Amino acid sequence: MSTTNTQFMQTLETPRLILRRPIERDVSKLFEMRSDPITSEYLNCDLDEDIEQTQAWLADVCKKMDAGDSVLWIIELREQNETIGTVSFWRWVKEHYRAEIGYRLLPGFWRKGLMFEALWPVLSYGFDRMGLHSVEANTHPENLASRALLEKIGFVLEGHFVENYFHNGIFHDSTIYSLLKSRFIAQTRIEFNHHYREPLGPAEGIE
After folding, report:
1. Are 123 and 184 in contact (CB under 8 A)?
2. Is 137 helix (H, G, I), strand (E, B) or coil?
3. Which of 33, 94, 108, 136 has the least CB density, counted as fewest CB within 10 Å?
4. The architecture CATH gives domain 6-196
5. What pTM was estimated for this model as a whole?
6. Cβ atoms of residues 3 and 69 within 8 Å
7. DSSP H helical segments within the chain, as ranges?
8. How confident is the model over 101-154, as pLDDT tens digits?
């Protein structure tokens, strides 16, 4: 069975980013992100109304991480030391070697290739360190930017569920993507290396 001790989860690095465990000083930026209707437009979730809600959410996240049930990284700009988003494996089905990935980025940092850059080492960590065989992504059909990102990385559309999710009095559709470890190794490494034109270090690549 796939296992990892998230108390000692690896800090991951890319040319522009540091991905690390959340700490208390991240709360203000996390609240900004989790209370922003633009950031949460396609997530079909309630917004945080005050920073105490964000603190409670973060405490629950850290508890699950320490129990080995999920992993969440803060996305931080390397040069500015600024928290700009999160990426996580939050639904981890260990007996099937499968986890669901989730990600969120503050709007001021969209369309800069930052989430693509962040997802690469996270997926490497999932397949190499967590022992995953496949990764799932659940996104809103109208979230075209997220769908394009997933497809660029190598995720394959596996299903479109009609009105399978109820939130705020409305039934919503879901599109389900999946990425196998074998596909990630075969396709995505080549694209990432070409994009940055430099070899991947141990923190970013597949060992």
Report:
1. yes
2. strand
3. 108
4. 3-Layer(aba) Sandwich (3.40)
5. 0.85
6. no
7. 27-34, 51-66, 114-128, 144-153, 181-183, 189-196
8. 999 999 999 999 999 999 999 999 999 999 999 999 999 999 999 999 999 999
116-127 pLDDT, tens per residue? Answer: 999 999 999 999
Query: Largest Cα–Cα distance in the chain?
Result: 49
Angle at 14 between CA 158 and CA 150, to 5 degrees: 15
pLDDT at 159: 95
Residue from 203, 93, 117, 94 nearest 103 by CA: 117
> Any idea which residue has 């290739």 for tokens?
113
* DSSP string for residues in 146-176: HHHHHHHHT-EEEEEEEEEEEETTEEEEEEE
Q: Is the pLDDT of residue 44 over 60?
A: yes
| Non-local CB neighbours of 179 within 8 Å, separated by 6+ positions | 123, 134, 135, 137, 150, 153, 154, 155, 156
